[in-house]
Amino acid sequence: MSVEFDRVLIEPAYRKVAAAIGERILSRALRQGERLPPETELARQFGVNRSTVREALRELESRGLLQRRPGSKLMSVSRPQPATIGQGVSHALLLHDVTVHHLWEALTILEPPLAAAAAAARTPADLEALGEAIAACGAAATDTATAVQRTAEVFRCIARAAHNPVLGLAQEPLLQLLEPSLRIMIDRVPQARSRITAAQRRLLEAIEAQDEAAAREWMARHIRDFRRGYDLAGIDLSLRLTA
Amino acid sequence: MSVEFDRVLIEPAYRKVAAAIGERILSRALRQGERLPPETELARQFGVNRSTVREALRELESRGLLQRRPGSKLMSVSRPQPATIGQGVSHALLLHDVTVHHLWEALTILEPPLAAAAAAARTPADLEALGEAIAACGAAATDTATAVQRTAEVFRCIARAAHNPVLGLAQEPLLQLLEPSLRIMIDRVPQARSRITAAQRRLLEAIEAQDEAAAREWMARHIRDFRRGYDLAGIDLSLRLTA
DNA sequence: ATCGTATGATTGTCGGACAAACCGGCAACC
DNA sequence: GGTTGCCGGTTTGTCCGACAATCATACGAT
């Protein structure tokens, strides 16, 4: 007895259309920057209504596979931008009740090796970009929000210097999640900015000297310092992160 | 001279609607599992056409913020599943020309600390789940595809044992990207399966004993072994990953 | 050369329409 | 009693047709 059947999957047309276009993009049959035909033409090709095509396009758009370039109405194929993808991940994490401690632990694990990899792989151009980012971050900005943004930008520069997109993209949601709590921390702890700047300079020196061990160690201290900042700011590490 | 204006941003209605609903979900004004009103009602509330509402729903659906529970036509609020999010990230990475080496380097950095964290935080329930996953992976499956799937599942169990969603979600795209190349490797290297199983058993022992250092070390060897496998299988590490 | 205008293509949005699927309930039936 | 069949109401999936706004392009005027 007990004949078991698999759940028969019914797929709406808009998802089939999205899958068809998405598969072409992933397989690189459609190249980056290439422009898609107009919606009416797509509707004709797929044999569905324009409304159906539009629902499919919205899905691909939100995955970052399609975007509208300024000055063009036609959709064009694009590679998903780290900021976009990172936003999806950080939203997911927010809904999964991530705490400050989770985030800090992840930073502890990810960032020091990333700094080491950056020290190993950095080019002169990376070095220059990192130097500028650190200078911008050190410049006494009146606005806390921009100060936090620039701190995140320094991390991004380091990730870029490591020349590993996987690590860069893994880091992006962490930076986005870090923003609100870091803003509070900088606001409450007066010496936070100078400590961050000092750590960044040490990091820059280590990465410039291609000293992997030093880069790893300074970054580890930098992250540990964040924890101290949270304590000083009276931020409960077991608190859930917010948007 | 040279008066500079910011780019005036025009946002289509479907994106505004999506943003409005998404913001409610992120702020937890709409709780998990709660069901959204029907499309016609949403259209009435927002003062737009149903087609416009549908385009917005497609966007939220693809971000995993909404899903249709089986047996219900109404959309219900959901937290994005790691597999869904991971797919978005791995697609992005594929389009960013990620190589086997990038992936391997990321695994090298992420997995050993993850195993250590698992050793520290694991509960008896985690231990049991991990044991079962390893047993299932060790059982000689004829199918290479399922063998790879089960290997990935072991990694997921370890991440769950670490009780850190950030790390778990960071790992997910790596596992998805790993699949194709690992399949090739297992097919070409006869001893790969037994080496993987052996490493998993060592890991289980270390995690069971809550020996962080040992867990870290065995995982590091495990990942290094992957690299050896790639070499033996004749897989060029500078090759771009494929879907 | 710059500007204004006509023209065509394309999107954003709308209203309405209908079949199919699903739910709950109720009656019929073995 | 449990299963089956049927009915009405709700909701989605899909389609059709329509129109204003926007943009590209070409063309002509100043």
The outline of chain A comes out as elongated
**Helix-and-strand structural type of chain A:** mainly alpha
Query: Spans of chain A with pLDDT under 50 lasting ≥5 residues?
Result: none
Number of helices of chain A: 10
Radius of gyration of chain A: 23 Å
Determine the strand fraction of chain A and express it as a percent band. Answer: under 5%
User: Major sheet of chain A: order of its strands?
Assistant: 1-2
The CATH class of the largest domain in chain A: Mainly Alpha
* CATH architecture group name of the largest domain in chain A: Up-down Bundle
One letter per element, helices H and strands E, the order of chain A comes to HHHEEHHHHHHH
> Major beta sheet of chain A, specifics?
2 strands, antiparallel
Please state the average pLDDT score of chain A.
93
Number of strands of chain A: 2
Q: How many distinct domains of chain A?
A: 2
Name the chain pair with the biggest interface and residue counts per chain: A-B, 53 and 53 residues
Ends distance of chain A: 52 Å
Per CATH, the superfamily of the largest domain in chain A is: GntR ligand-binding domain-like
Oligomer: homodimer
Fraction of helical residues of chain A: 55-70%
Assign the CATH topology of the largest domain in chain A. Four Helix Bundle (Hemerythrin (Met), subunit A)
Notes on the protein architecture:
- Two copies of one chain form a homodimer.
- Chain A is 69% helix and 2% strand.
- By secondary structure, the first copy, chain A, is mainly alpha-helical.
- Chain A has two domains: 13-77, Winged helix-like DNA-binding domain superfamily/Winged helix DNA-binding domain (Arc Repressor Mutant, subunit A); 82-233, GntR ligand-binding domain-like (Four Helix Bundle (Hemerythrin (Met), subunit A), Up-down Bundle).
- Chain A has a two-stranded antiparallel sheet with strand order 1-2.
- The radius of gyration of chain A is 23 Å and the shape is elongated.
- The model of chain A has no long low-confidence stretch (mean pLDDT 93).
